[in-house]
Amino acid sequence: MLDLFQLGINYCNSLMPLIKLVKAVFTIIQWGIPIILILFGTIDLGKAVISSDDKEVKAAQSRLIKRCIYAVAIFFIVLLVNLLMKLVGESQQGSKTETKVDSTNWFTCWNDA
User: Fold this and answer.
1) Domain contains 47
2) Which pLDDT belongs to residue 61?
3) What's the number of domains the chain is made of?
4) Range of the domain at 88
């Protein structure tokens, strides 16, 4: 596997702002989007209940259930991506013959951000 950090130059410091931005976006996606989906579904259901229309209530319930499923899926997709990055990084570190931690490894940079 091609590792940009094998070139002998410590890219970790130069890439740190980008890595922090990506981790912040992942966090917003993982927590913000599911909360917004569930909140909008609850608001839709509340409007339907206030209108007292049975057909509209059933439609709002199905939308809320779908949004909850989407929220859980989004949460776990981001969690799965982070887990895969961790597993790949650990397998890369474990394959080295040295016992010291390489500070130029991309996974070390990801954890330090």
Assistant:
1) yes
2) 94
3) 1
4) 13-112
Note the pTM of the prediction, 2 decimals.
0.68
**Three state DSSP letters for the chain:** CCCHHHHCCCCHHHHHHHHHHHHHHHHHHHHHHHHHHHHHHHHHHHHHHHHCCHHHHHHHHHHHHHHHHHHHHHHHHHHHHHHHHHHHHHHHHHCCCCCCCCCCCHHHHHHHC
Dihedral sign (CA 25, 26, 32, 38): positive
Does residue 40 form part of some domain? yes
In this structure, are residues 104 and 5 in contact, taking their beta carbons and an 8 Å threshold?
Answer: yes
Structural domain contains residue 8: no
Q: Is 7 inside any structural domain?
A: no
Q: 99 or 14: whose pLDDT is higher?
A: 14
CA distance 67 to 86: 29
Neighbouring C-beta atoms of residue 11, cutoff 10 Å: 13
